[in-house]
Description:
By secondary structure, the protein is an alpha+beta fold. It has 14 helices and 31 strands. The strands form five sheets. It has a nine-stranded parallel β-sheet with strand order 29-28-27-26-23-22-21-31-30. Strands 5, 8, 9, 11, 16, 17, 18 and 20 form an eight-stranded antiparallel β-sheet that branches. Strands 6-7-10-19-12-13-14-15 form an eight-stranded antiparallel β-sheet, with no helix packed on it. It is elongated and about 100 Å long.
Amino acid sequence: xxxxxxxxxxxxxxxxxxxxxxxxxxxxxxxxxxxxxxxxxxxxxxxxxxxxxxxxxxxxxxxxxxxxxxxxxxxxxxxxxxxxxxxxxxxxxxxxxxxxxxxxxxxxxxxxxxxxxxxxxxxxxxxxxxxxxxxxxxxxxxxxxxxxxxxxxxxxxxxxxxxxxxxxxxxxxxxxxxxxxxxxxxxxxxxxxxxxxxxxxxxxxxxxxxxxxxxxxxxxxxxxxxxxxxxxxxxxxxxxxxxxxxxxxxxxxxxxxxxxxxxxxxxxxxxxxxxxxxxxxxxxxxxxxxxxxxxxxxxxxxxxxxxxxxxxxxxxxxxxxxxxxxxxxxxxxxxxxxxxxxxxxxxxxxxxxxxxxxxxxxxxxxxxxxxxxxxxxxxxxxxxxxxxxxxxxxxxxxxxxxxxxxxxxxxxxxxxxxxxxxxxxxxxxxxxxxxxxxxxxxxxxxxxxxxxxxxxxxxxxxxxxxxxxxxxxxxxxxxxxxxxxxxxxxxxxxxxxxxxxxxxxxxxxxxxxxxxxxxxxxxxxxxxxxxxxxxxxxxxxxxxxxxxxxxxxxxxxxxxxxxxxxxxxxxxxxxxxxxxxxxxxxxxxxxxxxxxxxxxxxxxxxxxxxxxxxxxxxxxxxxxxxxxxxxxxxxxxxxxxxxxxxxxxxxxxxxxxxxxxxxxxxxxxxxxxxxxxxxxxxxxxxxxxxxxxxxxxxxxxxxxxxxxxxxxxxxxxxxxx
Length: 721
């Protein structure tokens, strides 16, 4: 084949159900289809027309057997001899030299001799592995795969296609947690609902403190694998593969994590050759893509890969570590292989492909999860904290929108942080906060961030992206989820100082040109109807959420006093509730719909002060409260009260509207205790009371936050609730 960018050294081929020979470039581009292609005597025979990619032509030429042998077998074996000699393994080098010499014997390159040589190489590789000569074993393993690749591996018996069960939450088609051993028949049961149970061959179940259990695969036990029979649900057009793995090597060997035919299906592996050894790799009907760091540190890591029909993305421990775009996008095609975990099908290409280490929590989805969803999946297992943007109505023991466990309560601390130094000081207290029972930390950032999209809005003191990432990682390691906050709509000034947005862009003010030095007002608001606001604000939200590796975002929205003002050219005369809801819904569209994160907000503007007699800060006196009927019910409402009361009607009110509610207190201790106990009683009847949030409002700058009584005495009450 030639023309149209064809590289014969990077071609793949297959025979489809109609007997057509299909050639494809390495980038997945269809190059040529030969109809009625057969090979009854070991030679190709074509009949009927040939269909080409534009500009591609082909010619048939006879190549001498010796030329073919030199290109296909001798070159990789010569290279192996040199590597083995450099590795000071004379015995193995002589072994390969003897195979090379056999090519010159009568019948030395015949098909039956080819098979015998391949078997000899495979046996030698296994002997070296058993003896611990892993470097030499890796060299021979690679040479055997290059020189004696079998295009007709001995596959296990393939069942007929059958639909199986229905996908579970979020398109989950396989979930094998491995938290307990297989049943008496060696079956591990799929908990996705799709019925994709697996059969254990050789691999050993071991208890594990992190997940309850895992399966151990050993390279020296060449046949270790778990086989899941092929079903239609395991042949999606787009895909997410995910698992927790723990491996310490060895290098030089491809290690299959999830494999359903790396050539024509899909596969998640640790790469085995060259500079990519030990990196996570997605293979299949598209070019193999090793991405991310080497994972041979004998530590648990969450690995995932997604393919959406055009882009492969790799994730390590919840964070994207690389992506590659397919030159010619297309969906995955069905493949009739069984799916294997910890290995490939027996004798695939003759190469050793067994994983070496532990595998747990294996998941496959029939779609490409978003970056936020991958982080949610990681957090739900790593930090014991549900992080999916699931619908309201979750109860204890339920699962979130990804089929991951929902944790009973959210035990949070809210803190206002402005600098790397303050974040560093808070990082030192993370272990103590975790010991107090905290599993969530709301970090109010506002404009105190090193913005790159709008550096003109960076406050005088700010947090860097590097420090935010470091902090988020430290929090995850102690089981705390970070939820950043950017106060929206209101609080665009403080005292006589106007915040960066309205100082730089005064035309976005709800009261443009009014209230010099902010006299006569509590705080400024931006105009909720000016589209330029959101063009600026959304990139700021994205930068903050990405830096903190967040799967949820708090938008503030408290104490909005100026809205629908007569001085605003866009909002004057309009219903404050509709204006408030419009801002909430725009934020929701970006954060939840587009970014796939959860959204939280303060609830005071959704409460009618006329019904309770509370003050203007705690509840609305300016007509915004009817917006409660105009916003999505999967927003989490942070219902704050800072005064001791005999009753808190806002909490059952929000529950009656279908919201999940995060009760939020401050000080004094008597007030926080009253509110916490009232909320705990509400939770007994309605699990949509999701926990308790202890706000600090920078009080922690003056005290040891982890020893502050409103945290140490309240959060432990919410454990196991």
